[in-house]
Every structure is written in C-alpha cells, then in structure tokens.
C-alpha cells in the first residue's frame, strides 16, 4: 500500500561505448546493457512508496536545482572533491564508480541525493526518503514510464535539457478523486498543476468524501478555509518553480520512444 510514484531521470549514460577504464568492467555485467542501453543518454528509474502531492513537487524542485546548477562546459569540467574526474552525473563523461563494477552503484547518487531531506518546508520535515533504483531488476522501466507499481503518477527530470514534468498515467473519468487521476492522461504538467489536483483552489475540485464527511468539511466556512490554505500552498509551489521549464509532449516522446507503439500519448 502507499502513494506509489516513480521518478525518471534522463542523464549521461555511463555505459556509452568509450571503451575506457571501469566502463569496460561494467559492460561485462550481463544486466548492464538492458538496464542502461548503449546510447549517449539513458534513463534512470526510481520507485518511491509514499510520494505524492507537495512531496512529489518538492522532489522535482530539488532535482531541477541540481540540473540548473551546471551550465554548458561546467558539466564536463566538474571534479569530485577527491580529484577523481567525472564522478558527477552531470559530467559528459560520467563514471560514477571507483573500484566497483556493480550496476546498482550507478543508481546510488540520485537515490541518496533525493533521499536525504534537509529542507524544513518539505511536507514530512527533515529526514530520509527511501527511493529504490529499478533499472537492474526492472530494465523495461527506463523505456516504459507506465510499467511501475503506481497510483500517484510520475515525475520526469531531463538533466540534459534541464526540464521537468509530472504526469498522470491513468485513464481519466468524470469522478472527482482529488488526486493525480483528475489530470489528463499522459499529459506533461507543471508542479503547480500536479499539486492543484491534490490541493484544489476551488470547491469543485474537492471530492465528495472530503466535502460531506462529518469528520472533514461539512460546512461552507470549513470548505473556504481549506481552499484558502490550498491557495497558499499552491502559491509557494509556483514561486519555487519560477524559471524552471516544463517539458513538452514531443520531448517526453523523444525520451520514451518505445511507449508510442503500445500507448496512445495524446
């Protein structure tokens, strides 16, 4: 159970055919080619068991801050503090390991980066979030963003082009659910639009359970107070993401071309 969410990160591929150093070692692992592919770029897929609403937006913001911290040639010049080159996933010649040929090691950087929370405004406060790196055991996930155990949508971060989106992967119906399923299916949306599905800024976006339950908002005053608090939360998210660009549908298709034959992305 939980609010299951996947995060997909497009970045430089350590399995890209250079024939150097530890790259040669890693490619001997039979899992590596399916898990990463051989192209210049790859997608690293992660699962989180309880990521939704504002917490998903905060995570996307953290990743976009990382992406925007590096510009052009700085990505190739990045050096690890211990002076070994190319340890940062933003580096064009990304080689994230030193003395290992373990595929799981590639996922560690983002797994720990997303997982360690230091922002006091994060909805659950300072602490540790558990992300699971999917590529080694579920290699199809880097190509099919709707293949995971999911009920609260997905995040896509393009570290190469420095863009992001969140997305509903379920069919939409007329029921107001007050979650990601109120968004159009397979449409890349901004963080504020994603969060608005959970924290609607009008009474029409509240589901019947919330509006009618005696334990929730069973009068107009309580409903308005809730809407006002949602507006404050949405304003905070909108301010956080100023200057951060949302991916287009065509850009999503470019990252996940194998989705197209079996999935209609409208």
Description:
The chain has helices at 21-27, 32-36, 53-68, 74-77, 104-115, 191-198, 208-212, 220-240, 249-255; strands at residues 5-12, 41-48, 116-117, 127-128, 131-133, 154-158, 163-167, 245-246. The strands form two sheets. Strands 5-2-1-6-7-8 form a six-stranded mixed β-sheet, with helices on one face. The relative contact order is 0.16. The protein has one domain. Helices cover 32% and strands 13% of the residues.
Features:
single chain, 266 residues, alpha/beta, six-stranded mixed β-sheet, two-stranded antiparallel sheet, 9 helices, elongated
Summary of the model, kept short:
The chain is 32% helix and 13% strand. It has helices at 21-27, 32-36, 53-68, 74-77, 104-115, 191-198, 208-212, 220-240, 249-255; strands spanning 5-12, 41-48, 116-117, 127-128, 131-133, 154-158, 163-167, 245-246.
Q: How many E-type strands?
A: 8
Percent helix: 25-40%
Largest sheet: 6 strands, mixed
Strand line-up in the sheet with most strands: 5-2-1-6-7-8
- Shape designation: elongated
Radius of gyration: 20 Å
* Mean pLDDT metric: 82
Number of helices: 9
- Output the structural class: alpha/beta
List low-confidence stretches.
77-86
How many domains would you count in the coordinates? 1
Order of helices and strands: EHHEHHHEEEEEHHHEH
The N- and C-terminal alpha carbons lie at a distance of: 30 Å
The fraction of residues assigned to DSSP E strands is 5-15%
């Amino acid at each position: 159970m939980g609010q299951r969410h996947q995060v997909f990160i497009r970045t430089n591929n350590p399995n890209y055919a250079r024939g150097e150093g530890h790259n040669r070692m890693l490619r001997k692992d039979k899992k590596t080619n399916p898990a990463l592919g051989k192209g210049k770029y790859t997608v690293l897929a992660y699962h989180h068991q309880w990521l939704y609403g504002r917490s998903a937006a905060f995570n996307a913001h953290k990743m976009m801050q990382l992406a925007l911290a590096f510009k052009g040639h700085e990505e190739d010049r990045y050096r690890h503090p211990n002076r070994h080159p190319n340890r940062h996933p933003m580096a064009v010649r990304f080689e994230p390991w030193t003395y290992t040929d373990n595929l799981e090691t590639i996922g560690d950087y983002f797994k720990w980066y997303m997982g360690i929370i230091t922002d006091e405004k994060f909805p659950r406060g300072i602490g540790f979030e558990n992300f699971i790196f999917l590529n080694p055991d579920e290699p199809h996930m880097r190509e099919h963003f709707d293949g995971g155990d999911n009920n609260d949508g997905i995040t896509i971060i393009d570290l190469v082009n420095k863009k992001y989106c969140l997305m509903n992967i379920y069919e939409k119906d007329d029921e107001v659910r007050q979650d990601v399923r109120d968004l159009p299916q397979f449409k890349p949306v901004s963080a504020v639009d994603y969060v608005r599905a959970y924290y609607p800024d009008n009474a029409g976006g509240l589901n019947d359970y919330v509006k009618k339950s005696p334990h929730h908002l069973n009068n107009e005053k309580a409903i308005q107070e809730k809407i006002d608090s949602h507006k404050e939360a949405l304003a905070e998210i909108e301010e956080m993401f100023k200057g951060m660009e949302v991916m287009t549908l065509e850009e999503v298709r470019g990252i996940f071309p194998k989705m197209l034959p079996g999935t209609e992305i409208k």
